[in-house]
Amino acid sequence: MLEAPNRRQARFITFEGGEGVGKSTQVKRLLANLANVSVDAVRTREPGGTPKAEAIRSFILQGRSEAWGAGAEAVLFAAARYDHVTRLIAPNLAKGTWVISDRFCDSTRAYQGLTGGVDSKLIDALEDLALDGHTPDLTIVLDMDPETAFKRVAERAIEDGLALTGDRFEKEELDWHKRLRDSFLDIARNNTDRCVVLSANQAEESLEREIWNTVQSRFPELQTGIPA
Ligand SMILES: Nc1ncnc2c1ncn2[C@@H]1O[C@H](COP(=O)(O)OP(=O)(O)O)[C@@H](O)[C@H]1O
Ligand SMILES: Cc1cn([C@H]2C[C@H](O)[C@@H](COP(=O)(O)OP(=O)(O)O)O2)c(=O)[nH]c1=O
User: Fold this and answer.
1) What Cα–Cα distance (Å) separates residue 204 from each residue in 26, 134, 175?
2) Ligand 2 and 23: CB distance under 6 A
3) Which domains does the chain possess?
């Protein structure tokens, strides 16, 4: 008897890229597309995803670890990630539920490592410890020039009547964000088996279709259309 898609091997997909490129928007759209083909999936994010990792998130994003430097912050992100992997990601994958994460280990490599100047040996060691073997099956890198991304975020904040305050990393200079963009592209070039770079500078719906096509071609079991 043929198995329904959600009975097959669960997949771990991550979204990466700079600020405001549309990661959260597209994670939600991918979840809806997976639900349409009866695949059980959970949406999560980094830093965070579990109560303890969310506590580390608040600590870092409020700027309380800034004075410690990028190396110590990389260790904090890795501590949050270890909790996230062992308490949420691994158990869900083990029971057959796909996991879709808004940011994961490439953010540490890009922000603290390539852009923040932390030695790649420390980043490699932290990644090895925190992932505990759970390398993503697919990473979608959303790429776009940071000026356009910032305009989007600002326009939306004005529409919603919100003040644009920004967290620790959103406050960095434009040049820093350009280097960050290059860092994500470097990571993708060095991990072509895992990473797919897509232009985020397109309408939400067309980017959603590109992502769904990418996911379906990477995981052909989704194309069978067998109902659960
Ligand atoms: N393709 C798109 N075109 C225009 N605006 C978008 C697009 N995708 C997302 N947005 C808007 O841009 C802002 C940032 O999107 P978001 O998904 O929160 O980005 P991120 O999670 O990468 O920070 C939001 O206001 C969102 O509604
Ligand atoms: C996961 C992770 C995030 N970060 C940064 C990226 C973001 O600036 C911030 C998370 O904030 P968040 O608001 O979730 O990101 P976004 O702006 O994409 O919506 O933490 C790191 O510096 N290192 C990491 O390992």
Assistant:
1) 8, 29, 26
2) yes
3) 10-218 (3.40.50.300)
> Which CB contacts under 8 angstroms, 24+ apart, belong to 77-80?
77/46, 77/47, 77/107, 77/108, 77/112, 77/126, 78/108, 78/126, 78/127, 78/129, 78/130, 79/130, 80/46, 80/47, 80/48, 80/52, 80/53, 80/56
pTM of the model: 0.94
Q: What is the tens place of the pLDDT at every residue in 186-216?
A: 999 999 999 999 999 999 999 999 999 999 9
Ligand with an atom nearest the CA of residue 211: 1
Atom 16, ligand 2: residue with shortest CA distance: 19
The atom number, within ligand 1, closest to the CA of 19 reads: 23
Whether ligand 2 lies within 6 angstroms of the CB of 183 is answered as no
Regarding an ipTM greater than 0.90, the answer is yes
| 19 annotated as ligand-binding | yes
